[in-house]
Amino acid sequence: MHLPGYVNNVATPFFVTGDPMIYASDVLIVLTLVAIVFVLTYFKKWGWLWREWITTVDHKKIGIMYLIAALLMLFRGGVDAMLMRTQLALPNMRFLEAEHYDQIFTTHGTIMILFMAMPFIFAMFNIAVPLQIGARDVAFPYLNAISFWLFFFGALLLNLSFVIGGSPDGGWTSYPPLTEWPTDPGPGENFYLLALQISGIGSMATGINFLVTILKMRAPGMTLMRMPMFCWSVVGASILIIFSFPALTVALALLMIDRLFGAHFFTMLQGGNPMMYVNLFWVWGHPEVYIVVLPAFGIFSEVVATFSRKRLFGYASMVASIMAIAVISYLVWLHHFFTMGAGPGVNSFFAISTMSVGIPTGVKVFNWLFTMYQGRIRLKLPMLWAIGFIPNFAIGGATGVMLAVAPGDYQYHNSYFLIAHFHQVLIGGVVYGMLAGMYYWWPKMFGIILNERIGRWAFWVFNIGFYVCFLPQYELGFMGMTRRIYVYPAGMGWTALNLISTIGAYLMGIAFVLIVWQVLYSIRFPERDVTGDPWDGRTLEWSLPSPAPHYNFARIPTVTARDAWWAEKEARRRGEDVQKELRPLEPIHMPNNSGRPFILSVCFFIGGFGLVFEWYWLAILGGLGVMLCLLLRSLETNTDHYIPVEEIRRTEAALGRL
Amino acid sequence: MSLAHEEVLSTPSSDVPVEYSTEDGALKIFGFWIFLATDLILFACLFTMYQILHINTAGGPTEQELYDVPGFTAETLILLVSSFTCGLATLEMRRGRRSASMGWLVVTVLLGLSFIFLEVREFVDYVNRGATMQRSAFLSSFFTLVGTHGCHVSLGILWMLSILYQLGRRGISAMTARKIFIVGLYWHFLDVVWVFIFTVVYLQGVM
Amino acid sequence: MSSEHHEELRGFHGIHRGFPWSHVVGLVVSLVLTFAALWLVQAHAMPHGLLLAVILVLAVLQIVVQLFFFMHFLESYGPRYHVTSLALAFVFTVCIIAGSLWIMTFGGEQTY
Amino acid sequence: MQKTFDRRRPRAFPPAQWRRGLWLALPLLLGGCSPQVMVFHPVGPVGRTEERLIIISIVLTAIVVVPVILLLWHIVHRYRDVPGNDAPYRPEFSESRTLEVVWWSIPIVIIAILAVFTTRDTFALTRPPEKSTTPLTVEVTSLDWKWLFQYPGSNIATVNYCYIPTNRPIRFILTSNAPMNSFWVPQLGGQEYTMPGMAMQLWLQADKPGLYYGRGAQFSGKGFAHMTFDVHATSQADFDAWVKNVKTTSPPLTEDGYNQLAHPGLSGKLSYSSYPPNIFHDIIMKEGGMYMKHDRAVLESAK
Ligand code: HEA
Ligand code: HEA
Ligand code: CUA
Ligand SMILES: [Cu+2]
Questions:
Q1: CA distance A227 to A375
Q2: Contacts of C101 in chain B (CB under 8 A)
């Protein structure tokens, strides 16, 4: 896309780069905003939005908001991917310029990992965890709302960079000294630093929140070893979040101090040491990839057991392997920079620790297989994605083990072999897992089951598209094609494979459109879930109506076995009278809604925006706003209320549960 | 004013202190322990950074030239004593003695303020001697590590003031007791971090 | 809420009575540790590397003092998850610090 | 912006270098085993060591991964919930000590084997591939966005291409006077980062004369895609002749000339008959090398 120079000159440094695509999106964003404002005003929905969603502290609603945000970000990141693949389809393409391409892969990677995968797993945490452990909410509902809004405004900040000030272009890893001020001036990189920082605080809070929830708020009788496997995976992921995000906080903060205040942590001059950024980044970055994949493992464990109508195989070793993965992933971070030359002793140690992650992961794979073995497999949508996941992840994991062989990595590093590896685990593991989870819990969230036929099409198109897109990339890596290049010459033998890869990417794009269609179609022609237990489930969330009432459980259940709901159904099938043990209803203690998490996050956003443009007065204003919100919260005493028994009885009666 | 939820006492018994007496309190205290664990990792990263960069003085002032033994020893003593007085505040809170508890908190706040005063004076002194954050990687990491601790302490002071206010208004309830206990944990934690700053930054620097 | 109500609660919760011995002991020990480290450094009592190791050990002892004398570390009402999580945090802290320092020494063992 | 980048023509590649037996093992992965699959057509001992290790790792991982996929296929077919399926159904079958021992131990054994090979080669690759011949030292600096090669032995310098003698270990000493990059010549062997203030060492060696593709592999900004370079491997005699030729026909690289080069931008291939003494050393020291014992050791050992 080549523009006459005058367009560039007209564009102010604030409303960036004179690219028609940017102008188009500027216009589109404004139009969308106007449309949203219009619709909300016309249908008088502002109050509803504020009362029901923005101020909510209900984990189920927060989960739904996370889900919507994640799907939107998947779209945004996916469009970036389509643009990249279009540019790479043929040699010497002139569809995107270097600067533009650099911004696109940076936002693609950043958005996909931090603003797609993270909110997606948090969506699943919020939707499923309290219901699975028989709790009425998370441990800190107010904090939970803060987490969501911090994520939301972090994501907003990053996405804003596309139209205001310029996008970051140093890769999602953002290594200095490239990203230091002298080589990367302007607000783009600041957007990256502050967006991640703000949402990172939210993620850390979520980690703490769910760890406390699971450890302290389980229903009576649910010992740790009776917990659903998804909850165990959340424990693992939370531990990883809690102990790894601080490293990201530090890495980002130091780089920001360098850029804004002229310090010398990672500069080339005055004694700075850029390798320390690389080190700190991956101290977080490696655990991060397990943070997003462990919940996917948890979902697969639930789905595979449910749709094989069988108990999960090897529960104890599943738990052990989650914990082993969580702990080992703190000892492997160097594998992302074997080629930094830290010495053969260091490289060997980290190579071996990295490979050994394959052991517990392998155990999980075998346990899933044997859960299906001698079961009765129903190929419903969640199960389809789970089955699609296994070969995908086995291959992606095996190439991970190949990357872990340090001398081999000297050849693969930064090549398309690496790109293929991590898409295979990120898409085949995380995206497949989250889609499985979405299909699985969709009835629980909305009370409708998504259309099976369109879903099947989407699955097959996506799965085939996936292999078509990424298998050729392994080969491209062997052929010497490195990542982050916006053009490549003809005559390298890369052309055909790149073209195939691009076709695969488009297939995935089509599959995504099918999924959107599927959702819209199912809303139009809903298949209602009236039982609350559409899949013949095993865990407690299926004992509730779909969607669950806002207090979740009218009576907190007492758990006596591992698959609590399955056990109860078995008991019923045997004709035992479960009803007779019912305790009388009691008033339920619930947190109040509050607008302050939202306002607090707006203040964070304002402060962050101020720092991005180095308008320090604005930054300080935002900071003061944050302090004020915290102070007001600290002084607040009226934070909770009780739902009277009468109201519970009415609600339950309406749901046909009395 | 309603403290209804705070009175959801999980069987008040003589061996459970007030701050743990509600489910809410116990959850928050546990949550705060985990928060401290994250802060621990945060400081660990800053310490690592410092340890790697402290020799990179780029021809600027060195540790030997800057650090002043009586100065940092005084800061250390003040913080150690404040940790003690803060502990007493928690103790008195558990005994239900509101004014004693508030008194020790006030002492802690005053000690904290004098610590901050000394630290700011130290920083100003360095800057006047040309040792700014922009001068070298060593100084960047020094100011960031010690400054982050200082920010934590300042935040702790503000927090204690807010709790003092609440204690004055509401007396010792399950809620205020929990807050005193938690701010105490925070304060002791900062003391631990300072001991490492004392050791790794200052003592190593003058060694 | 009236403070009379809490007046009653106090009776239940009088855990520590009398002189706060444990706190005073904690303070004294921490002061002793501090001055010991300071003295060792001022007197150049040992070679550099050993000295650093010794004062680090003293600092770790200070953690123990704070945890046990001031932070009511072993107190718990319910499962002692906070002990587990802090132990985990220590392990990871050590991994991160030791690993980073090792990496950043850049192949002290490299043979040319 | 675009106009400043001159696109290079596709280059010729050396004639096919079939590696014995390789295509037998991995016809699928190698996609017909064209020589353009550089990693599998190494022309020196370093690349060969890495290739062998890569093949070992492929085979070892395939030992579990292939059966897993086949097993999945089988299980899904056998135990589908379709009417009339007479396969056994045991909903409570969820523990088996024997099975669990089996699948904890298989990966452990495989990883253990792989670990041994990995450690062996990781150490081996830090040593010169051949001890009998005296190595040649080439100092490499990554700039924005070009590669500078200096030959301390003969005091000549080149940009974006280099010559190396065959059958002689080359000690590449790598640094950067710009953001990090990575020095990669796939057919000779794996890459290593070039970093400001660091002197890293990479051993490579070519067995066969030829023109090999080299490129920067660590993203370094907008000109990154064009940071390729040519490695000409020739016999020692041809190499000497080339050096002589450069010495007599090329201009010297001056301090100013270097500063010009260090300026961001692209560049064609250039040759210099001499360069200011110590310029490489100074770049490293100026950008932080003075704090690194390790840098001094590398520079010392290259003398
Ligand atoms: C969800 C994300 C995810 C997951 C789960 C993994 C899993 C693994 N990854 Fe990957 N990785 C990434 C995401 C992920 N990775 C990303 C995003 C990057 C690049 C970032 C960037 O640079 O931008 C990366 C990069 C990366 C590198 C760095 C390469 C380089 O930069 O040069 C390495 C090197 O060791 C590596 C290794 C591994 C290993 C060994 C595993 C293992 O955990 C895999 C374990 C699984 C199996 C092994 C398969 C199942 C097991 C069996 C079927 C049985 C037993 C098998 C054997 C015994 C072999 N990964
Ligand atoms: C979870 C993480 C995640 C996910 C899901 C994806 C998904 C995809 N990624 Fe991405 N990727 C990363 C994480 C991820 N990626 C990271 C971390 C990097 C590294 C960045 C860096 O180097 O810094 C990267 C880099 C990266 C590159 C390398 C760029 C380079 O180095 O030059 C490529 C190239 O092919 C690529 C392709 C794709 C494709 C085709 C998809 C597809 O799966 C996308 C599927 C599409 C959708 C789901 C949305 C659908 C779009 C539409 C509906 C629009 C419809 C329009 C048309 C069909 C035209 N990705
Ligand atoms: Cu790279 Cu020191
Ligand atoms: Cu990793």
A1: 22
A2: 48, 51-52
Q: Note the pLDDT tens digit of each residue in C14-48.
A: 454 667 778 888 888 889 999 998 999 888 878 88
**Probe site for chain B from D285, D291, D293 (most B CB atoms < 10 A):** D291
Q: By residue range, what is the domain housing residue C82?
A: 78-112
For chain A, the farthest-separated pair of C-alpha atoms sits apart, in whole angstroms, at: 81
DSSP A514-582: HHHHHHHHHHHS-EE--SS-TT---SGGGGS-SSPPTTS-SS-----SSSHHHHHHHHHHTT---GGGP
Q: Is the pLDDT of residue B97 over 90?
A: no
- Angle, CA B142 vertex, CA B139 and CA B144 arms, to 5°: 105
Residue A487 has pLDDT above 70, yes or no: yes
For ligand 1, whether the C-beta of A308 sits within 6 Å is no
Round to whole Å and give the CA distance between B71 and A204: 36
Q: Which ligand is nearest to the CA of A272?
A: 3
The answer to whether residue A343 scores a pLDDT higher than 90 is no
Give A326-388 as a DSSP string: HHHTTS-GGGGGGGG---HHHHHHHHHHHHHTHHHHHHHHHHHHHHHTTS-B---HHHHHHHH
What pLDDT does residue C85 have?
86
Torsion, Cα A190 A195 A200 A203, to 10 degrees, reads -170
**What pLDDT is recorded for position D54?**
94
CB A273 within 8 A of CB B137: yes
**Does residue B10 sit at the D interface (CB-CB below 8 Å)?**
no
Residue A19 and residue A30: Cα distance in Å, rounded?
Answer: 17
Which CATH homologous superfamily contains domain A45-336+347-583? Cytochrome c oxidase-like, subunit I domain (1.20.210.10)
Is this prediction's pTM over 0.90? Answer: yes
The pLDDT of residue A586 is 86
Is the C-beta atom of D198 inside 6 A of ligand 3? yes
Question: What distance in Å separates residue D284's CA from the closest CA in chain B?
Answer: 14
Q: Tell me which residues of chain B, numbers 142 to 171, contact chain C at a CB-CB cutoff of 8 Å.
A: 170-171
Nearest-5° Cα angle at D90, D87 to D91 = 125
Going from N- to C-terminal start, the domains of chain D cover 4-29+37-124, 136-301
| C19 pocket-lining for ligand 3 (C-beta < 6 Å) | no
| Residue A305, CB-side half-sphere exposure with 13 Å CA sphere | 25
B179 burial via Cβ count (<10 Å: 0-12, 13-18, 19+): buried
Token pair belonging to B67 = 């650090």
- For residue D200, the ligand 3 atom closest to its alpha carbon is 1
- Please identify, in words, the CATH class of the domain defined by D4-29+37-124: mainly alpha
Q: Could you check whether the bond before residue A494 is cis, i.e. omega within 30 degrees of 0?
A: no
Interface list for C 73-112 with B (CB within 8 A):
77-78, 81-82, 85-86, 88-90, 92-93, 96-97, 100-101, 104
Instruction: Output the average pLDDT for chain A.
Output: 90
> How far, in Å, CA of D199 to CA of C107, rounded?
12
Nearest to A181 by CA among A171, A190, A192, A172: A190
CB A257 within 8 A of CB A263: yes
> Which of A368-382, A582-596, A625-639, C71-85 has the largest mean confidence?
A368-382
Least confident stretch, A233-247, A409-423, C18-32, D128-142: C18-32
Q: What is the pLDDT of residue D288?
A: 75
Is domain D136-301 classified as CATH 2.60.40.420? yes
CATH architecture group of domain B18-55+69-206:
Up-down Bundle (1.20)
Chain-chain contact of B83 with C13 (C-beta, under 8 angstroms):
no
Q: Does D115 sit within 8 Å of A413, measured CB to CB?
A: no
